[in-house]
Specification:
Layout: E1 3-8, H1 13-24, E2 31-38, E3 41-48, H2 51-60, E4 67-73, E5 88-89, E6 95-100, H3 106-115, H4 126-142, H5 148-165, E7 170-176, E8 183-188, E9 193-196, E10 201-204, E11 216-219, E12 224-228, E13 233-237, E14 248-249, H6 265-271, H7 273-281, E15 285-286, E16 291-292, H8 301-306, E17 309-314, H9 316-333, E18 337-341, H10 342-345, E19 356-362, H11 368-379, E20 383-388, H12 394-398, E21 402-404, H13 417-435, H14 441-462, H15 465-474, E22 480-485, H16 490-504, E23 507-512, E24 530-533, H17 540-551, E25 557-562, H18 565-569, E26 575-579, H19 588-605
The structure holds 6-O-phosphono-alpha-D-glucopyranose.
Length: 623
């Protein structure tokens, strides 16, 4: 949610900053801006619209200078206008600031500034208030100095003093026209990483913005303030402690974040799933003991055995993975498991027994609601583990342990490969806890075999892409789509509907098949297809009854099935997509893929912006 990039070095900053923004566009794309300093002159370009609009603007009116900051916005405070686009400035216009987060007490701070004569606010944003506050504190402290070292120290002092007054969240980067080759960054609640180069250094919301220039990164902690120059940087907490800030190697390369031959990131990521599913289980299966090995949980066998209850929490797609996790863990390990919306969990008093274990599921590891849930559960003293993709993310770092997805960067806003990786990991968790309890070796082996078969089976499913494309073409003028499934495939109905909403903007709902008759059936009509996820399993015949009920009311039926299902659906369903078979608890990893493809092809047919859908952002770092 909002992306920021900063640069101090010897190269032209504008190109590096724009390129960085392109990599961060998934975080927000309603407006963008860049500010560069050259010989004491601060120049800015900013506008509503995508990064391409900003690139056009900077091509028309080029920027020169070797240090600067940039921002891509997802609006929270203030409409999408040129004025509200970042960077924002202090009253003198010499200090430029970009911000990701929300300054909750900005009204109070603004009233204070206005009372003291500061009235030149140009935008409606909370960020501008912080720029003014820092600028005012700096101007007051700096009036009498010309020494550049003192200027740096005083700018840093002003940032610190201003941030002490802030309530809310921020990842910020700022520069000042009078303080050459110097940039300050700080974070609280919103991610910020320092990229360490040779004779140049970077700040960014996410390493993907800078990985083309350096793979050495320092992940800042909450309350860290960093001053960045070409050849050095200094990090200290807002309280003044220097702390430990190791330089880590970024796991992926610039090549990994390219689209390759695919038209969209989403399609590329859907097609990566044979590999990402394999990577999620790599080295984690013990064929001999018929169990899973998850050392990252940091729990002894006795601790694993003593877990009496599990809570799975997350948002969006991650929450849907949690819903399947609930079925999985209860089936395999017989441990009572609850799924909680992270945003609800953190504010309500969920009864928790002392032996409760909490999992926070998040691809980005930065989602504000999920992070809030994790912190609340840790504050209460519960062991809280992360299931994250982003290795250096806040959730990964603040949890007591966890399991990484190893899915590689996911750029498409609609989550795909991270979902199937989450499902593999939740299956491993179910298997591990099950084998610590009553799950037999035979059952354990059956799950392992099913997991190991998945990559090839996914390859098979991906071959159905053309069939699904043809279905999408046929149904391109529908008014919405309903999704139904039972048991393990009920959450897949939810996820299928979410994908459809996110990228086609069509009305879509997912429900347990049997709920159809309790209200939803009133919606059924010829221009509203129902997608039934009905593998050939123990509830197939029950599902068949529901399909008949829709058929009787002239609702078109698109079915996903396996085994002998196709034979029985031949006379009833308008479309049949046949999938390879798997045990019911593993089947969702296969059934979700045609639904990802259906949403994708339908969105292409409708001419939607697949990788940057309307109003959404991939990483939601505000509440
Ligand atoms: C946003 C994205 C969703 C995603 C959710 C949770 O809403 O648009 O696609 O599922 O955040 O993201 P996380 O990174 O926590 O998995």
């Amino acid at each position: 949610m909002c992306g920021i990039v900063g640069y101090v070095g010897r190269a032209e900053a504008a190109q590096i900053l724009l390129e960085g923004l392109r990599r961060l566009e998934y975080r927000g794309y309603d407006s963008a801006g860049v500010a560069v300093v050259d010989g004491g002159n601060l120049e800015t370009r900013k506008c509503a619209g995508r990064i391409v609009a900003l690139a056009r603007l900077t091509k028309k009116r080029p920027l020169s200078g070797c240090f600067g900051i940039s921002h891509t916005r997802w609006a929270t405070h203030g409409k999408v206008t040129d004025e509200n686009a970042h960077p924002h400035f202090d009253a003198s216009g010499k200090l430029a600031l970009v911000h990701n987060g929300v300054i909750e007490n900005y009204q109070l701070l603004k009233e204070d500034l206005v009372r003291n004569g500061d009235t030149k606010f140009r935008s409606e944003t909370d960020t501008e208030v912080l720029a003014h506050l820092i600028g005012k504190l700096y101007d007051e402290s700096c009036a009498s100095t010309v020494d550049v070292y003192q200027k740096k120290a005083r700018l840093l002092g002003a940032v610190r003093a201003a941030l002490q007054k802030v309530i809310g969240t921020y990842g910020i980067a700022l520069v000042h026209a009078n303080v050459p080759d110097f940039m300050i960054g700080a974070r609280r609640g919103s991610p910020l990483v320092l990229g360490v180069g040779k004779g140049e250094n970077f700040l960014a919301s996410d390493v993907s913005a800078i990985v083309a220039y350096t793979r050495d990164a320092v992940y800042l902690n909450d309350f860290d303030v960093v001053s960045v120059e070409r050849d050095k940087f200094e990090i200290a907490s807002l309280g003044g402690e220097s702390g430990d800030h190791p330089v880590s190697k970024v796991e992926f390369t610039a090549e990994d974040i390219k689209k390759g031959d695919f038209r969209h990131y989403m399609l590329k990521e859907i097609f990566e799933q044979p590999d990402t599913v394999r990577d999620a289980m790599r080295g984690r299966l013990s064929v001999e003991e018929c169990t899973a090995k998850l050392g990252g949980l940091n729990m002894t066998p006795a601790q694993l055995r003593d877990v009496g209850r599990i809570i799975l929490t997350g948002c969006g797609t991650a929450l849907h993975a949690g819903r399947i996790g609930e079925y999985l863990i209860e089936r395999l390990a017989n441990i009572p498991t609850e799924v909680e919306y992270a945003s609800e969990f953190r504010h309500r008093n969920t009864p928790m027994t002392p032996e409760t274990l909490v999992f926070a599921i998040s691809q980005s590891g930065e989602t504000a609601d999920t992070l809030g849930a994790l912190r609340e559960s840790r504050r209460k003293g519960f062991r809280t583990l992360g299931i994250c993709n982003n290795v250096a993310s806040t959730i990964a770092r603040e949890s007591d342990g966890g399991v990484y997805m190893h899915a590689g960067p996911e750029i498409g806003v609609a989550a795909t490969k991270s979902f199937t990786s989450q499902l593999v990991i939740l299956t491993l968790i179910g298997l591990l806890f099950g084998r610590m309890r009553n799950l037999s070796t035979a059952e354990g082996s059956r799950i392992i075999e099913a997991l190991e078969a998945l990559p090839e089976q996914i390859e098979e499913v991906l071959k159905l892409s053309d069939q699904i494309k043809a279905i999408a073409k046929k149904y391109a003028d529908v008014n919405g789509v309903l999704f139904f499934g039972r048991q393990f495939n009920f959450p897949i109905a939810l996820e299928g509907a979410l994908k459809m909403k996110e990228i086609t903007y069509l009305f879509a709902e997912g429900h347990p098949s049997a709920e159809l008759k309790h209200g939803i059936i009133a919606l059924v009509r010829p221009d509203l297809p129902s997608v039934f996820i009905v593998p050939d399993d123990a509830v197939f015949s029950k599902n068949l009854n529901n399909i008949e009920q829709v058929k009787a009311r002239k609702g078109p039926i698109i079915s996903l099935t396996s085994g002998n299902g196709a034979k029985q659906l031949k006379e009833i369903a308008n479309e049949i997509i046949s999938l390879p078979d798997a045990p019911d608890c593993v089947m969702p990893i296969l059934t979700v893929i045609p639904l990802q493809l259906l949403a994708y092809h339908l969105a292409v047919e409708l001419g939607r912006d697949i990788d940057k859908p309307r109003n959404l952002a991939k990483s939601v770092t505000v509440e």
